[in-house]
Design brief:
A 5-stranded antiparallel sheet has the order 7-6-5-4-8, with no helix packed on it. It has a 3-stranded antiparallel sheet with strand order 1-2-3. Helix content is 25%, strand content 30%. It is α+β, with helices and mostly antiparallel strands. A hairpin with a 2-residue loop joins β6 (89-94) and β7 (97-102). It folds into 2 domains: 10-58, no CATH class; 67-108, Roll (SH3 type barrels).
Length: 109
């Protein structure tokens, strides 16, 4: 791959895929690393912002102060408030009790 050439890679269901006009097969981690070696700093920054934007669209928009419902037997039927948002979990308060809850168990109320 030439220096500075930008190749788009799409992440679909956890798999990195090149656009159809380049290839239609799944790309493994070694191939991704080989593609990234040839990219310049500006291209890597552009790729990073594209990935961040995609991740923000995929991840639920959980914010501090948001009312939520947690899918767990301890707090079934209760509406809680998100106190803190971490990378993979949120601290949620239910009537004085606080729980550290995985994001995939939280639904917006």
């Amino acid at each position: 791959m030439r220096e500075g050439k930008f190749v788009r890679i799409f992440i679909i269901r956890g798999r990195a895929i090149k656009p159809a006009h380049l290839s239609t097969h799944t790309v493994n981690h070694l191939q991704i690393n080989n593609m990234l070696e040839g990219l310049g700093l500006a291209d890597l920054r552009q790729l990073q912002t594209a990935i961040s934007t995609k991740m923000a669209n995929i991840l639920p928009g959980l914010r501090v102060g948001m009312k939520c419902v947690v899918d767990h037997r301890k707090v079934r039927g209760q509406i809680g408030e998100i106190i803190k948002v971490n990378r993979t979990r949120c601290k949620v308060e239910f009537g004085g009790s606080r729980f550290n809850v995985p994001m995939n168990m939280i639904q917006q109320a």
